[in-house]
Amino acid sequence: MSTIADVAERAGVSKATASRALTGRGYVAEATRRRVEDAADALDYIAHSSATSLATGRTQTVGVVMPPVDRWFFAELLAGIQESLFALDYDLSLYGVPERSSARARLFESVLPRRRFDGIIAVGIQPSALELEQLQRTGRPLVSVGPYNEGSSSVSIDDVAAARIATEHLIELGHADIAFIGGQVDAADLSFGDGRRLDGYRGALESAGLTAHIRVVDAAPTMPGGYAAAAGMLGDRRNRPTAIVGVCDEAAIGAVIAARRLGIAVPSELSVVGIDDHEHAEMFALTTIGQSPREQGHEAVRLLTGQMADADAPLEHVSAASALVVRSSTAAPR
């Protein structure tokens, strides 16, 4: 197997020059670069990642920390991150660990500080855990995805505005009795982003003079969670709301399924709106606030590569696009 020394000898240059020519890091005259590349091709030389790391000080690896990817949003976001990193010849080390677990505490306290990454992308970090501050202390370029972004470049949507727009859509249709599915009775279990969506719902009703109608139903942000919460609430005919805002599309779709099983017609008897534009939203004709987590993944990599190229680059906060997508799960109340 050929080595960088063999390539350098064949091209008539030093090993350092050959390494710079093949990695693209550092100035090499174009004629010299072509000569080194021709020598590498002739010798079937393939650069070893460890050797490249030693020569350049870079690992060509980005660490990604996020909740477990069993939810659509995180899976799509990870796909976008991976696509962009692959296009840049970067590897990805994924750490998908549940919040408030001993494994997660160990990850932030001892594992991540010892790992060699060129940069880190942190997804859905909670302010209460001080995790973003722990990542900042590693001294590596850092980008966060989600509404909590103290001290880092970030990509997020305006969660407050998303829920406010969803709720105002129902108010404009004539609904007053609007429930929110996905709030948590225990505030410690409510993610920072979901908490901001709850704020947006409350704010919309308060601005419309409907404070007395605020109704928050405890539910996990999943289809089964939304189904269980809606089934319990909709079973009471006398106190049934005319509309539901889901903290996310999964919870909203669960509510639609529960309504149908109870014989409640959507949207003539119950309007439902979600947030995210999940891949199944079209199938359920769900009105929602659309966003593209895959594009947010691409944007996160763009911000990170900018930070890696210039450690003194100013922090940048990107607000990803989101807009009301009206389908047929919402209508004026009867």
TrEMBL record:
Q: Which residues form the HTH lacI-type domain?
A: 2-56
Q: Which UniProt keywords are listed?
A: DNA-binding, Transcription, Transcription regulation
The keyword Transcription regulation appears for this protein: yes
Task: Write out the GO MF terms.
Answer: DNA-binding transcription factor activity; transcription cis-regulatory region binding
- One short Pfam family name for this protein? LacI
Q: Which SUPFAM superfamilies match?
A: lambda repressor-like DNA-binding domains (SSF47413), Periplasmic binding protein-like I (SSF53822)
Protein's UniProt name? Catabolite control protein A
Name of the coding gene: ccpA_5
